[in-house]
Amino acid sequence: MSSRTPPNHPIGSSGALGTEVTGTEVTGIDSDDAEKQEPFDFAPTDLKPGFFGQAVSADDPTVVSSAISEQDMKKGHRDRLKKRFLRGGASAIEDYELLELLLFLAIPRRDVKPLAKKLINRFGSVAEVLSRPVSALKAAGLSDSVVAALKTVEAAALVLAKDDVLAKPVISSWQALLQYVRLAMARKDREQFRVLFLDKKNRLIGDEVQNEGTIDHTAVYPREIAKRALELSASAVILVHNHPSGDPQPSKGDFSMTTEIKDALSKLDIRVHDHIIVSRGGYSSFKSMGLM
After folding, report:
1. Which one of 136, 147, 242, 252 has the largest count of C-beta atoms within 10 Å of its C-beta?
2. Number of folded domains in the chain?
3. Which residues lie below 8 Å from residue 17, measured CB to CB, with a gap of 6+?
4. pTM, 2 dp
């Protein structure tokens, strides 16, 4: 039995009894009947907005107006957010809105508010989002462009923090040093051992990660540190490593490692000014604790 679809049936939606209407063709019927079908006597542009998913013409002024309004609304949100930030800085906006501003750089048109909130819910804060490794950000479904934008901001923050350390002797800019090493290492998922090499005036001449290990251990080689100190003509060093567990208190292994490095460097007349341990929960300093 052949079938004709009434003029008000939406194109591309399900027809009666499972019939699929697609332009001038009806599917879901016998092949013999299909050959008898006549072209529809109406065009897609004749359709008007209706209920229950009824199709709408792309030429309909109502649709065009709606699309433009949605674009204007999104652009208006971005413009308002940018103006609020420029007037009052980060304190004038919510954390997720700060992340929105960053996402604007990589996603120029789509509404990014849901994504910003999703990332903060997943990782905990804007700082945690920025400090996550590339692999973790990609696992969250982010594109290379978005990941690059986020990691660029993190890298820029490190450059700013390190510049404060380079500006004057480390000993006289201790808070700047602590801020830099915490920013660089505190949120790492694996233990990392870093050595800051200083000249005779205690200015930073080298900042190097010596090794990276597991979540609770990293191998350290005193001879390699001594060798590198000689290559840089360093007069002193500051040892830094992180505790991914969140507890910055030194372990027995940290004590013995520090002693071994001090012994190796003392033979070369190179001082160990301090051993700093950083974590999400804060930091500890061997010197501040009277251990050096």
Report:
1. 242
2. 3
3. 28
4. 0.65
